[in-house]
Amino acid sequence: MPVALPLLIALSLFMSNLVLAEAFPSTYQARPSTPVLFTNATILTGDGERLEQADLYVSDGQVKWIGEGTPAKDAITIDASGRWITPGLIDVHSHLGVYPSPGVAAHSDGNEATAPVTAEVWAEHSIWPQDPGFSRALASGVTSMQVLPGSANLFGGRGVTLKNVPSRSYQGMKFPGAPYGLKMACGENPKRVYGGRKQAPSTRMGNVAAYRNAWIRAQRYVEDWDRYEEALQAPDAGAESDNGGDSVASAMLKSSPPKRDLELETLAGALRGDIIVHMHCYRADEMLTILDMADEFGYRVGTFHHGVEAYKIANELAEHRVCGALWADWWGFKIEAYDGIQENIALVDRPEGGCAIVHSDSDEGIQRLNQEAAKAMLRGNRAGLNIPPERAIRWITSNAAKSLGVDDRVGSLRPGMMADIVVWNQDPFSVYAKPMQVYVDGALLHEAGNPALNPQSDFELGQLMGVAP
Question: What CATH class is the domain 31-88+412-469?
Fold first, then answer.
């Protein structure tokens, strides 16, 4: 074996380790908190249970027990009689930070509408942490959210899950350990954006062809890296071998890692199951096509977003264990959104395998997720589906957490879970409901009537200087 090869192999191993290092890691740290015992509350646990006149104890940023237990002597006791307690709300489809307020062209950073496939971009690199929308969402009980790129492209890029806390950087908000999401879009949006420029795709068949071409390239990329990783695990190429040619070939492969490609790196992550696919799609027939394509290339669709016609294929979604992140009653604003019904969410929420979610896709809608869920619950009950509050709360808590791959940490009130908690003045599905207190990791970050506590962005402070209270 040539003398230079061992040096090349060592350099290759070093570069491989650099490739595997986490880019833009989370720097999130929970705020300091005091142990709190809530007593006599109506508690919706987020996983289907309702407790009356119940106690909840949180300490060290976690739920320690619910129902019965012994709190620390220094715990603050809050009499929650007449109050309702839920997990912190979660929005799986937000553009806060990438389309911040004020809504001006200089802030329009959600769509990299320069090519049909832009899987290489990451929404987090557009997030402006000073967006006043974050504090508005917090005051409405939203403690976590996924911020996504827009839907101009077939592959719009990576989304990121955030904890809704004030921070100087997006990395200080980044939910530690949460998997990335891959934003994809089907239907009218990508064909309109690129067809209008006399580019491909300009039709739905063009959309599907472009997806498949991208997945084919991603499959090859995965195979190239798999071969390289296998070669690294093979016996030392310098060892004696009956087949010297194979040894030299293995050594050469070790010394030549595949060229990194940021676009294909994201797609490869989806093929391997490390990145969750979030698919903007309205029509039932197109969602079925996407499920067939996922079978063809061996990846899994995690959640269909918007899904105005999801009710037509509720059984298929349940069988594939695919969530539907849906609106309560947005419809008719374009042809593919025409065939909507207000029972959509309730019908998708099948007892076996169903995973219905209420999402916003709106800087205003995120402030009333509970009311949107209430509308869907009402329409389901009028249709005879018997949906109580303890079931409907899952649409904005545990089901949403499942969609984001963080349901082992947030979305329900169980021992060991992050103490993301909302204390409501009454039934959260009432139009008169207001969050009285909002805790993130056990730290009180919002309290009604306590403006000194509630966060404000530097941007807002600059605008409000000199304004009388």
Answer: mainly beta
